Amino acid sequence: MSLKLLRQGLSGRPPERMWHSRPLKDEYEVVIIGGGAHGLACAYYLATQHGITDVAVLDKSYIGAGGSGRNTAIIRSNYLTPEGTNFYNESVRLYENLSVELDFNVMFSQRGHLTLAHTDASVRTMRRRAEVNRLQGVDSSLIWPEEISRLCPQLDLSDHPRYPILGALYHPPGGIIRHDAVVWGYAHQADALGVHIHQHTEVTGIDLTNGEVAGVRTSRGVIRTGTVLNATAGWASTIASMVGLSLPMETFPLQACVTEPLKPFLNVVIVSGSLHAYISQSDRGELVMGASVDPFASYSMNSSLEFLEGIAGHVLELFPCLSNVRVLRQWGGLCEMPPDFSPLMGFTPIKGFLIDAGWGTYGFKASPICGKTMAELIASGSTPDLIKPFRLSRFDEHDLVGEKGAASVGH
Ligand code: PYC
């Protein structure tokens, strides 16, 4: 990539577009609603793995404008259930090779991830997660204050805080990534393979014929198609309602913020479920911080002072040394929370209408494996084993996948 950049710089020509605006065709084999990392990854894998390129990716805004551009870019696979751990582990593996695969630097930094435990109950949960993780081959262990201090000397490990740190779940392969780069890399390669990316194209309705998907109505015209994938994190319930489907989840706002840049000092990702705080340092030196979802269901993406006061107070309990650091900006995104904190993936009772939804506060980190498995499901017509546990019918079958203890964020 760097040689390409150098040649480009020396040529004096304007840079090549990473993806293009194409005319909206009146028919596509597959229509993906949602131009985030999930939808674009699915388009990319449909093209590369299955030779399906007659694909439109529609977004009502610009690509990556939703959850993919609003998350705090944490990658990990230290979940509580074997189903969740295996699934996210495959995602981490794909992320590890993504810069090479997409020929675009997604800046994946596997710097290690620490989930702090401040109570005996949370130490027990961390121990259980470590055991489940290790049984699935994921590097994860329970560590104590001495080792925590070695990994992150700036943390207040004394007994002064309200909730002293008793231990932590340490997950060395976890880390952070450049989330926009993931979106752009998938978009670039999907576009190069013939996928049409239609930004500013809002879906206004979905047509059914005899109970099966027949087309999609958009702000730019009607598209005939037999296959629609709903990959619209935050908005998936509203899209599902267009085919008369009610999904078992509610949408909540999730806010985050960054501080002014500081010299690099934080070499790990720190999460505290009890304090509702997570924090990492970006390559630009900014501290990226977030908390739990807002306490009421809503589609608001506004920023609030309550969030800022809460997160500042909690981060200062962990890192009193940051008391003079200023916040640079804050933003909000949307999360859909299913009752068992696991996603909803695959077929629905409506033929041709597929979902990749219910991503709570942990959707971005699943993007590559969601794209890959949903592409396989579309191409083969059968559900890959890895995502069978997340099928929508699990709610009727009383076969939930309880991931609440590994959500990283209090709810
Ligand atoms: O699940 O790792 C996570 C996470 C971090 C921030 C929000 N969710």
Give a topology summary.
Elements: H1 2-11, E1 30-33, H2 37-50, E2 55-58, H3 67-70, E3 74-75, H4 82-96, H5 98-102, E4 113-117, H6 120-135, E5 141-143, H7 145-151, E6 167-171, E7 175-176, H8 179-192, E8 196-198, E9 203-209, E10 212-218, E11 221-224, E12 228-230, H9 236-240, E13 250-259, E14 269-272, E15 277-281, E16 287-293, H10 305-318, E17 327-337, E18 344-347, E19 353-357, H11 367-380
Parallel strand pairs: 1-2, 1-12, 2-8, 4-14, 12-19
Antiparallel strand pairs: 3-7, 4-6, 5-6, 9-10, 10-11, 13-16, 13-17, 14-15, 15-16, 18-19
Helix pairs in contact: 2-8, 2-11, 4-11
The structure holds pyrrole-2-carboxylate (PYC).
Pyrrole-2-carboxylate is lined by residues 72, 74, 76, 278, 290, 361-362, 407-409.
- Helical stretch tally: 11
What separation lies between the terminal Cα atoms?
Answer: 41 Å
Total number of strands? 19
Could you describe the largest sheet, including whether it forms a barrel? 8 strands, mixed
The amount of helix comes to 25-40%
- Silhouette: globular
Mean pLDDT: 96
Name the strands of the widest sheet in spatial order.
Answer: 5-6-4-14-15-16-13-17
Spans of at least 5 consecutive residues whose pLDDT stays below 50 are none
One letter per element, helices H and strands E, the order comes to: HEHEHEHHEHEHEEHEEEEEHEEEEHEEEH
Bound molecules: pyrrole-2-carboxylate
Percentage of residues in DSSP E strands: 15-25%
Structural class estimated from helices and strands: alpha/beta
Q: What Rg do the Cα atoms give? A: 21 Å
